[in-house]
Amino acid sequence: MKNSKVFKFSIALLLGISIIGTFSGCSSKETKGEAVNVRVGYFPNITHAQALVGRDQGTFQKAIGAANKIDWKLFNAGPAEVEALFAGAIDIGYIGPGPAINAYVKSKGDVQIISGATDAGAIFVSRKGIVIKNLKDLSGKKIAVPQFGNTQDLTLRKILSDNGLKDKTKGGTVEVRQAANSDILALLQKGDIDAALVPEPWGSRLIKEASANIILDYKDVFREGKYTTAVVVVRTEFLKNHPQIVEAFIRNHVATTEYINKNLAKAKEIVNKQITELTKKSIANDVLDAAFKRLTITNNPEKDSVLDFVKSSVKEGFLKSEPDTKDLFNITILNKVLKENGLAQIK
């Protein structure tokens, strides 16, 4: 009887181990073996050039393998893309540094920057008939930015602060407004605003279509042009579950960056083709040429500039307190790929 009980216990134990092993095997297979739908957020903008070129040429799809699928998700504003990251609706995203910072802070580190995409490309202009030679003359002016708390807004507020100015909501003399880039063009043409700090290609469009005057060009607005305008982010859960796919994505992102810089004329054609397809509006060639001259297509996330944006976000009240930024960047995979390709690694 005793032996019978031992035998039954042994069988139950073996069955338990077998079941655990079966489920464990399924879990492993689910992470490593089954087809993965990789949802990638991006904007129809030249600052997301790698996404546009890679989408057109199908290179990201090729990089992650035929068994998996790239699912491109189009956005027109950073906050909407951040919400999609929080909801698990996208896995990887091209996005501005301001929204990337907010995503990292609000998710408590569940969203990280894994590469740079574009540097510079912001320009500060005044409307026709107003020439600003001294930045202190911005006092009393109405200035537009695409969105409060975004890269251009933070840059503007630093410019104002450096010149002893601040916006009216904080007791200053400068009225800062937010408006969509297309609306900024109309406002400037009508004379409803005096100046604007915008990303390309809108800066070049304001110069061409509204006869705007340059107050500060891209190299003068911040850090001599060494500031990030777009980065690549990932949900850390997706990175943990699919590191090989993220590596394949970054590998192609780096290759696409190299392709654009070595084949700029062709890359501009592809970018314009994609923007036309996505927005039903093309960019004039002269505007496109001028815009690309103010951009740097890069893998470098310009960490110092992002950390400066963090400080500005705290100072201006967009972040409640100074966050712990030690895990904001996760560029291990990027540096591995850069090293393998004989390119300078990011410190």
TrEMBL record:
Keyword Cytoplasm: no
Example GO molecular function: ATPase-coupled transmembrane transporter activity
Primary residence: membrane
PROSITE patterns from the UniProt entry: PROKAR_LIPOPROTEIN
Keywords, sorted A to Z: Cell inner membrane, Cell membrane, Membrane, Signal, Transport
Database matches in SMART domains: PBPb (SM00062)
Keyword Coiled coil: no
Annotated compartments: Cell inner membrane; Periplasm
CDD domains: PBP2_NrtA_CpmA_like
Coiled coil: none
A Pfam short name: NMT1_2
Leader peptide range in chain numbering: 1-24
Annotated GO CC locations: periplasmic space; plasma membrane
Annotated InterPro entries: ABC_SsuA_sub-bd (IPR010067), NrtA/CpmA_ABC-bd_dom (IPR044527), Solute-binding_3/MltF_N (IPR001638)
Limits of the Solute-binding protein family 3/N-terminal domain: 37-267
Domain of life: Bacteria
NCBIfam families in the record: SsuA_fam
Similarity comment text for this entry: Belongs to the bacterial solute-binding protein SsuA/TauA family.
Protein name per its UniProtKB record: Aliphatic sulfonate ABC transporter substrate-binding protein
